[in-house]
Amino acid sequence: MQKINFTTIKAALMGLTILAMALAGSAGARWS
Amino acid sequence: MLDQLLPAVAAALVARAAGGSLAGLARPIRWWPLGLLAIGVELGVVQLPGVPWLHWVWAAALGAVFVVVLRNLWSERGLAWSLAALGIGLNLLVILANDGYMPVTQAGLEQTGQLTEVSDGVFRRDVLIDDTTRLPWLADIFADPTWVPHPVVTSVGDRILIAGLAVWAFSSVYAARRRRAVLESVLAG
User: Fold this and answer.
1) What does the pLDDT read at residue B137?
2) Of B186, B168, B147, which Cα lies nearest the Cα of B78?
3) Which residues pair with B54 in a beta bridge?
4) Is B154 near chain A, with CB under 8 Å?
5) Which pLDDT score, from 0 to 100, does residue A1 have?
6) Which residue of B has its CA nearest to A23?
7) Handedness of CA B86, B89, B93, B95 (dihedral sign)
């Protein structure tokens, strides 16, 4: 079984957080 | 909406082309679960029918993101978090000055095809700009061009925030260039 690369997972999670915060913080964004 | 994220994605790719590593995105963000929770709340709220206090839930989620950004600014004191704090702060300012709603121009809603949604009765976080609007220059006044896939109307604060995230993406990826170089030299034997 391939070893899970935690650095990759963490990078993805932090990148996702930044993108989520960009959307949540941007009052002009809409989701539809 | 995703076109708003393009500057950050482009900045990351430019930094990658300049020798950076995308693994640099693993740079820690303090209190990040709160940031993810906030967007979860916002995504949930916009699915609900409009009730009088719901826009305050949405504004509170925005406030939570502001807190996360301030927490990170406290630790890092960099350009990226400074811009993000300024952008979200300006958005919060105009929203709080207008009873929890984000004012938006009618022309902007028309140009981005949202005018029909206003009459549908679903939750709206925005309200049309009129003579009673406070700080209208901080409101949603910049409409995306019609050729953009999902055009939105953005504010000065939105644009500053987007710039801040692009700086964050670039600096995170570019700062990892040395680690990547070392790793590649090790792999090359």
Assistant:
1) 96
2) B168
3) none
4) yes
5) 45
6) B39
7) positive
CB-based burial, B147-160: b 16+ in 10 Å, e otherwise:
eeeebbbbbbbbbb
Count the residues in chain A: 32
Using the CB atoms, write b or e for B80-110: b if 16+ within 10 Å: bbbbbbbbbbbbbebbebbebbbbbbeebbe
Q: How far is B42 from chain A (nearest CA, A)?
A: 7
Of B21, B25, B168, which to mutate for an interface test with A (greatest number of A Cβ within 10 Å)?
B25
Q: Confidence class of residue B97 from pLDDT cuts 50, 70 and 90?
A: very high
Residues in contact with B132: Cβ distance below 8 Å, sequence separation at least 6, in sequence order: none
Provide the shortest C-alpha distance from residue A4 to chain B (in Å). Answer: 14
